Amino acid sequence: MKKFLFFGPLLFVVQLINAQSWDWGGPIDPLQAKFQIQQYRLELEIFPETQSISGRSTITFTSQEKLDTLRFQLIDQYQVSKVLMDGKEVDFFQKSDLLDIVPTDCTCNQVEIFYGGPTPIAQNPPWTGGFTWEKDAMGRHWMGLSSQGEGAKLFMPALDHPSSEPQQGVELSITVPKPYFVASNGRLIQTQNQDQKVQYTWKTDYPINNYNINFTVGVFEKAETDFRSVSGAVIPMAVWVLQDNKYKAQELLEVLRVSTQTHEKFFGPYPFPQDKIAVVETPYLGMEHQTINAYGNNFQFVPMGKVQYDWLLHHELGHEWFGNKVSVGDWADMWIHEGLTAFGDWLFYWEHGGPEAYFKKARAEARGIPHARPVLSPPNSTEKTAYHPEIYTKGAMVIHSLRGVLGDELFFPALKAFASEEQFTYLNLVTTKDFTDFIQRYTGQNLEGFFKLYLETTNLPELKVRKQGKAGYRIALEGIDFEMPVEINTSEGSQKLLIGKKGVLVTSSSLPEVDPRGWLMLKR
Ligand SMILES: [Zn+2]
After folding, report:
1. Each residue of 3-29: pLDDT tens digit?
2. Is CATH 3.40.50.300 the right assignment for the domain spanning 219-317?
3. 182: helix, coil or strand?
């Protein structure tokens, strides 16, 4: 009873903290617009028994002007104990999930932040993220971290805005008790044993989105191979699965190989050849953590043609191209991450299941779109504002429709070129306008009306088919002021006609079938 009285309020406080939800993005804080992050170097110790962390983050930055305040985000439930600049302690303030540091009069471009505390517990990972503390079948700890909806402030101090990526990447030295392993981004450059503990140091030199900085803790079985990229590079490929699932590791590795090959065919070479292609089994569904995708889909492979397909693995891997290599700096444009990646999922159907499987998938997805919100959100949107299901389904459908409008000879090279352009990749973040301008420039087509309609509104062209004369029909698309190429089947055969609001007269003794394969989103 005493125990209950003692722990009752404490538990209540912990639950209150953990019920909190965080957001990120929106307009950039003026104080944070004054500096850029070069690198995050994080040294963390993870304490599974108390579900807490403690450590030091060394942040290297550049600035064009003298800074009065160096502002980072870090959730208040972590306590900062000390901040050093140029080896000297400096003043700092923690309030409203912000960490304001008062720099000394130095010209130093590095700050060391010592902090720690209880980890925020994920309420519905990966959508409402945080730390997920699970146990494997042997009763051993299994920890996953997800933060797409919240940013890196859930685990480290950061300039936590989607437009900020550490230009020279991250280095993560994570210490855990033995026998645990830490799977993380980039390459494992050092493993250091310290009595009952072990420290794993991972490093990537590629820029990386804050929410992709990640680590998973568990006792894993590893399967690995070399992947030969279309670029000619030989890239390490690995999967880490719980030991209970070790007999599935080789099959998962093969699924990963086929998915990588499929993405490379349509999107170009794997974007992070200096690091690795990898997945780690996580206690939540999944996330596109750069070079260490979270995988929690329970090995539910389905046969497609001659290969096995795992929709979750294929989807998260697709984000290595759209999300991680091609990244948006404003969540308003988040449909570029999710729509293009979801379209990449449909391309697996195309490549391995054949055209029938692809069109069937596209039609099924199209039927489920509510057309309630535009896929493009207003400028400076937060993640919670911009994230909704249509950025996946309608986003993919826009790309599918674009394919129908352009034809494969124009569409596929344009898509690959967009994902390969220096001005749209790695540190060069993209906007929706970058994408729509590039596609039009590359293909020489005017698609302003098409993009405006499907990306910025919830309107759909209204299909009108009217009998005209004895053996004729007038087919029109009302509500648009441009024309789209539309497939039409008549008694005379199949043809593709440019159709707008004025309509086109076709000869047919039977009712024409308009867009029978389902390229377009129309009010039918
Ligand atoms: Zn996704």
Report:
1. 333 334 444 444 445 557 899 999 999
2. no
3. strand
